[in-house]
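Structure tokens please, single chain.
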Amino acid sequence: MATQLRINGKDVEVTAPPDTPLLWVLRDEIGLTGTKFGCGVASCGACTVHVDGEPTRSCVLPVEAVAGAEITTIDAVNGTVAEAVQKAWRELDVVQCGYCQSGQIMSAIGLLSQNPSPTDQDIDDAMSGNACRCATYHRIRAAIHRAADTLEG
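Here you go.
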């Protein structure tokens, strides 16, 4: 059975079983490998995408649940907030190994889209579901503040 999806602004028909996690459809059927597999139980955040603008864990989300939704992956995220976040990430050398960073960036964009002036606590709360094995949390927080400052400026 085919499922119609809208991914990164394009309509896509996928043939995966309806209970297949979105992550595997993105990576294996469509070839969008920017979204990473980390834990498979929605605990680490590496698989974060935006579904209708909201950061969502794709490793446990059945593809049938997102038919008709607007799905955005790290491969095509854009706009003022995304540009500010990505610029801050580069300027502050946030990335160490890089594996979790697509999920971190997608979560940061989601936060700043909803709250353009977050406190440290707001950032910690919004990012708490994203694990970084290299422990670059202080650089992540600093980059989110820098992106917020850029957006205000």
